[in-house]
């Protein structure tokens, strides 16, 4: 069955926006509504109008104006060019060239994967679009099938340029990075700085989807998909052999090992020139016929334009393409200081040097089907317990000595949400993630490098204790899922499922059979700092912020220092150093 292309206008829709006549609806979502509009001479535009709750935020407007300016610099045959915008009006809006064609998501959902003969043309077009977007200093950060439209002369990449503005509002500050789970890069899932390499990873996933109709990391709950993205190799058994080497390199876990957009373009154009070009592919040809007849307005519209979205039928994603919620590691308040890597060392870019517009700028939600705000944990004990400070107010100070008890100040609603999310996480772990804990050499999901093993240190673990202050081990990037724990004298790279241990991660919180103390910002993360500390957290469980460093005093006279690199409700990435005690 052919999907509906243009939705009729409803009561309350504007007659015109910015002097452009409104003809039909293209879709709506969490960011706002998208309309089909026409110029006086008859050219067609797609106009995205943001929701009032975004428009009321001063920081959104500031970033919206910046991103519009950046997006206007992108001029490429394989993008939908930004034609006009009004970031300062009552309801900000953005107008782009209308692309009369289905999204890749809609085409695959309705007709199946694209034929092999069309894949080099699709890939080369998207790679060329990314090259132009990156040259303008923009990182798309949400490249996915619903953001690639299939026109009769090639693909078009859309929705770059305004999601960074939305990401700054109170609606999204407490909840994660921009991205759709199946098309996120590992560093996005962890909450690391996004570079152009995240778009290359998404490109590999997108090309695999176009060829097979499947994600290389499987289906299922977002948390499970994100776990596989970080921990498991992609499943490429159904991938065409000609494309497999390109896709494998794009999906490398290390951003530095992925090809550049220029390399992708060279390889795909060479592949394209070696065989007849078939575009549009036959399944898409049928879809394109539905876009040739643009409806006239179904009624005389006299309502003044206010930007308020009218009530009506349930909102449909653009062109019938299903939209997915965004997930990821939440951004935490930085307390006015730049982000640091473990133990105070400056964090280095993962892929190229950042531009003046920042190669980490989020991008917009889909062209007419934006997604709801991302999910994630706040920086407060048990997310949802307390509101974020209003825009313009200072963020709360970082934990100094004591962490609040997780039960105090938690409203009934927040407790209910915690139980629901906790149950979901537990179910996922039981059904799938727990399998990883039992696999030899991989454990609960830890990664990283170590300089030594702490097995020979400590008391009660076997062997004579080494002199106090001896560095026993240094682990980089340990990934631990909710419901898992680590023992410093065992192998922290291999978290185990269950309760207890020296450090246990549970639903965004840390607890364990240890004492904990905070290392204040500016203090060195050394054995001496922790050994001289006399102030410990009084509570048994606390919620650490991303970018904070903690002393951990074990019952076996080991002393650990943990640096929180990334964290959300489902899992955490940390660096760990372990010394021989006495810990206190």
Automatic annotation (TrEMBL):
InterPro entries reported for this sequence: Kinase-like_dom_sf, Prot_kinase_dom, Protein_kinase_ATP_BS, Ser/Thr_kinase_AS
Annotated Pfam families: Pkinase
Region named Disordered: 296-407, 438-466
Regions crossing the membrane: 416-435
Biased composition (Pro residues): 362-375, 387-401
Positions that bind ATP: 48
PANTHER family reported for this sequence: MITOGEN-ACTIVATED PROTEIN KINASE KINASE KINASE 20-RELATED, SERINE_THREONINE-PROTEIN KINASE YBDM-RELATED
Name of the protein in its database record: Serine/threonine protein kinase
Species: Actinomadura mexicana
